[in-house]
Amino acid sequence: MVSADVIRNVVGIVGNVISFGLFLAPVQTFWKIFKRKGVEEFSPDPYLATLLNCMLWVFYGLPFVHPNSMLVVTINGIGLAIEAIYLGIYLFYAPNKKRLRVLAVLGIEAVFMVALALGVLLGAHTHHARSMIVGILCVIAGTAMYASPLTVMTKVIRTKSVEYMPLFLSVVGLFNGMCWTAYALIKFDLFITIPNGLGVLLSILQLVIYCCYRNSTPKNEKNVELPTVLPKPDNTISGGNISITVEQ
After folding, report:
1. Are 10 and 182 in contact (CB under 8 A)?
2. Which end of the chain has fewer CB atoms within 10 angstroms, the N or the C?
3. Which sequence ranges are marked TM in the entry (predicted)?
4. Which residues form the domain of 119?
5. d(Cα 24, Cα 196) in Å, to the nearest integer?
6. Tens of pLDDT along 42-86?
7. Number of domains comprising the chain
8. Is residue 246 situated within a structural domain?
């Protein structure tokens, strides 16, 4: 009979693969930013929240905080590097006002992590105490990460356009939340269950909103003038223009 630990490890490996896909899901968004040379209405909030979330989970999974959680460390370490790249691209193309806001949030997150590490290592002397403190913060950060697209969902409802809420990101987020919820329930870990369970519900909400507004998303249009020649009544030739509309 297969033990619960083996099943949990298999689910955790699958969760790593899905989470990796989740971290790569915004590549299309940042490709648009690169091509357009500007961040437009794209929000940095999901990436700032995910960066903090990854830092906390890496710390939570370290052996001196919560032993036997290396699968949590590996995927969140990868996610930490990927989110840092995304935010670097965002900072490069963002206008000064948005750039300063992102830098301020990053500074706060860095100070917070240093203070947390020092406080936990110096003030908590058992695995249980350290896991409890960091775990509670992970629940808060994980919930914030899954809830961060709420700002985008508000924009979708206001503009009746899903342009700034990629479908793939919502779908992968749903499967990611389901997988890690299962991982946490096999060998019950409350701190992993709560944020990922909420993530499942919020991802479903995103998909419902996407289905409601995908058909109302306005298409980008531009006028293209093509040269033509039109005969005059006196049989002379003159240049003219025909205006047509091309949908992208």
Report:
1. no
2. N
3. 6-25, 46-65, 71-93, 100-125, 131-152, 164-186, 192-213
4. 4-214
5. 18
6. 888 888 888 998 999 999 989 888 887 888 898 899 999 999 999
7. 1
8. no
